Amino acid sequence: MTAKKASKQAAVGSPAKAVGVLLTMRQQSKLRVSKKAVVAVQSALTHLLGEVLEGAKSAAAGRTRVMPKHISAAFSTDSDLRSLGLNWMFRKGRANSTVRFPAAAGGVADRDGGRPLAGADRATSSKATAPKPEGAKVKRSTDVTSHKFSRTVKLCARDRECRLDTGAQDALQTIAAEFTADLAQAAGEAARKNSKDAIRAEDVRTAVEEHVKGDLKAHMIKEIDAALAKADQAAP
After folding, report:
1. Residue 99 three-state SS
2. What is the pTM of this model?
């Protein structure tokens, strides 16, 4: 097995290697999560990161490293990526990593036209942080778990032969955490509608069909089905 194939298998495969996905899904849905659901989300996430990296590579033509502005360009030139609503992390081509969204009802971070809400906490500078108002809401849990996606991002970048600077790595980790959280919430709603106490692979598939648009959705569903088929074959 080549290093490229091994890294792709590690990114998509075993639920044990998808710590960020599992933790985020549990935190956002407040439900148990099946192993196949983790495989489904991880495969969808890996495909998403691959699409973003391909767009970023095109934007960074001739440069040795992918930067946040290149990731921003990938979103701005792809309508399917823009439809995910993750472009709030970028302003004027730079990673907007200091923005923190307060949790709204149900734990969903509100977004308004890709800009942070007026009540969102943000750092005023790299050395000083504005004091939080009394009774401020706790920041969304993905702010805590995004670092858990470091391995997945690095493996995807290696598969696409991309070199990431620190800002791009952080931005992709946050994209991974936010996308996983959105899928977890949608899959959790689908599970509750069917009176289930755990998220299963079919709930994740439903979430992707509702949350993702266009060709990106079709390719993501295909990747999920392929990953689940491999998981069934590998099962004892």
Report:
1. strand
2. 0.73
